[in-house]
Amino acid sequence: MAFLAGLRITELDESKCTIYVKYRWLNTNPFASMYFAVQAMAAEMSTGVLCLANIHGRKPGCSMLVVQMDAQFQKRVTGHVHFTCPDGALAQAAIDKAITTGEPQTIVMRTEGINDKGELAAVFQITWSFKAKGK
Predict the structure, then answer these.
(1) d(CA 11, CA 28)
(2) Sequence-distant (≥ 6) Cβ neighbours of residue 75 within 8 angstroms
(3) Would you say 72 and 85 are in contact if contact means Cβ atoms under 8 Å apart?
(4) Band of the pLDDT at 77, cuts 50, 70, 90?
(5) CA 129, 40, 6 angle in degrees (round to 5)?
(6) Where do the domains of the chain lie?
(7) Statement: residue 1 has pLDDT above 90
């Protein structure tokens, strides 16, 4: 679905991930702006990719699950939007703790959507839960 909606990773390192999506016919709503679910996909992806990058290759592994999402929409998106999450270190610390202690960990990751005019279009707070596998 993310591919069909046009989501693209434009920046990724250990601390930050940015997802780009452009307003187009396939992701429009009846009000001539980007459908909120497309924005939610981009927001989740900007946080989830950071989590996946920190889990990849770990022994033991770690499962991850979105347990809550909160969104505030500031501006209609009628061009493009970049969702950026700078919480890679937060994800790494929670995953490390889940694996080391065997106790599930929960964190809230924030991502902001900036439109093509440089304005804040949306803010999402995605709550992730991590649990070490086999513990």
Answers:
(1) 24
(2) 115, 119, 120, 121, 122
(3) no
(4) very high
(5) 120
(6) 2-132
(7) no
At 105 the three-state DSSP class reads strand
Which of 51, 25, 40 lies closest to 81, judged by CA?
Answer: 40
Buried b vs exposed e over 99-135: b needs ≥16 C-beta within 10 Å? beeeebbebebbbbbbbeeeeebbbbebebbbbbeee
Amino acid, single-letter form, for residue 12:
L
Class of 2-132 per CATH? alpha beta
Name which of 48, 1, 59, 46 is nearest 19 in CA terms.
46
Strands, DSSP E only, in 17-119? 17-22, 62-73, 80-85, 105-115
